[in-house]
């Protein structure tokens, strides 16, 4: 899919409410040097509805709605999904190359303020898909986030709750830990692998998400906490058929705000590819790029679609997480 087709698809993804979409300034208007001003200094922008869903994801929604109808959390299965009105400007075209954060520079996320490009997507020269995304979590706490990352893996319907059009199933290798009361929230998911099946755009894919300590990315928890972060979820992405084949990484870092949290995410999809054999890493990253494997696996289309996917799923999660967690704490969700 070329860039012209991508821009055409973008136009049909969002509501044609011109007043809402024209309100935000261009991405460079609020920037000084390498630091972006607080996007929410004057309050949150309005939300705009998402109006385009590929047919197969519409079928997935009906399937998810039906299997959740008798669940105690069914009311949180949202048919209407939204983005904040300042986000469409970042969907329309690739971010500039200078906005890409190399994975080795992840400690820059400890710096105060904001990077020049907190939202965007881009295909790198070797085919790696890079995504940077900032979403708002008003009313949420770090404890809610840590709870969610084990609670949603108890049964596939809970994973679908997160993005009912795109999420199909998710299973944890820590299934035997999930109902233990002697473990913390984090101990129920950190170190585990979740096998998830979902749509990215119209493409159905399965991937293994292996949760790792943020220190692996030079982001030890003591430094994250000192920088104002309340929660961190970091992972290696591994192939759906070959769990020993690493195909990417992501960082999700929740930072404290006046009214809750903000999530700063970074993805390197198709980057740092290696295969583990008997505990040893066999690097094939260069070969994967040279042979065009990265462009087929990730590339421009996945970068574009994954930015929209991330913004949608986390904006939706933020809309119900405080209430869902409240129901859990009050014993209204069962086990």
UniProtKB/TrEMBL annotation:
Its cofactor is Zn(2+). Residues 1-43 are annotated as: Disordered. Residues 103-325 form the DAPG hydrolase PhiG domain. GO terms for molecular function: hydrolase activity; metal ion binding. Residues 1-40 have a biased composition (Polar residues). Signal peptide: none annotated. Keywords: Hydrolase, Metal-binding, Zinc. It holds the Pfam family DAPG_hydrolase. Coiled coil: none annotated. This is DAPG hydrolase PhiG domain-containing protein. It comes from Colletotrichum noveboracense.
């Amino acid at each position: 899919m070329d860039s012209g087709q991508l821009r055409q698809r973008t136009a049909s993804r969002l509501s044609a409410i011109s007043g809402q979409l024209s309100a935000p300034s261009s991405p460079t208007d609020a920037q000084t040097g390498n630091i972006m001003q607080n996007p929410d200094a004057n309050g949150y922008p309005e939300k705009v509805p998402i109006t385009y869903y590929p047919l197969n994801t519409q079928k997935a929604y009906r399937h998810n709605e039906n299997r959740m109808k008798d669940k105690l959390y069914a009311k949180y299965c949202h048919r209407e999904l939204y983005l904040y009105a300042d986000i469409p400007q970042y969907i329309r075209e690739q971010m500039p190359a200078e906005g890409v954060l190399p994975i080795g520079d992840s400690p820059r996320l400890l710096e105060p303020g904001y990077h020049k490009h907190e939202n965007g997507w881009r295909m790198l020269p070797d085919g790696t898909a890079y995504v940077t995304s900032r979403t708002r979590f008003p009313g949420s706490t770090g404890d809610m986030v840590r709870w969610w990352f084990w609670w949603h893996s108890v049964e596939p319907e809970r994973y679908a709750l997160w993005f009912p059009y795109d999420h199909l199933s998710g299973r944890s290798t820590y299934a035997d830990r999930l109902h233990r009361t002697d473990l913390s929230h984090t101990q129920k998911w950190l170190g585990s692998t979740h096998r998830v099946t979902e749509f990215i755009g119209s493409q159905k894919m399965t991937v293994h998400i292996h949760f790792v300590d943020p220190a692996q990315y030079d982001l030890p928890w003591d430094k994250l906490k000192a920088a104002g972060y309340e929660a961190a979820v970091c992972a290696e992405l591994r192939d759906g058929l070959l769990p020993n084949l690493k195909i990417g990484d992501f960082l999700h870092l929740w930072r404290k705000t006046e009214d809750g949290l903000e999530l700063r995410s970074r993805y390197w999809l198709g980057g740092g590819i290696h295969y583990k054999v008997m505990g040893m890493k066999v690097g094939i990253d260069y070969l994967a790029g040279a042979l065009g494997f990265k462009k087929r696996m990730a590339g421009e289309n996945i970068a574009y679609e994954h930015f929209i996917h991330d913004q949608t799923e986390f904006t939706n999660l933020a809309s119900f997480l405080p209430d869902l967690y409240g129901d859990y704490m009050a014993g209204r969700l069962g086990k």
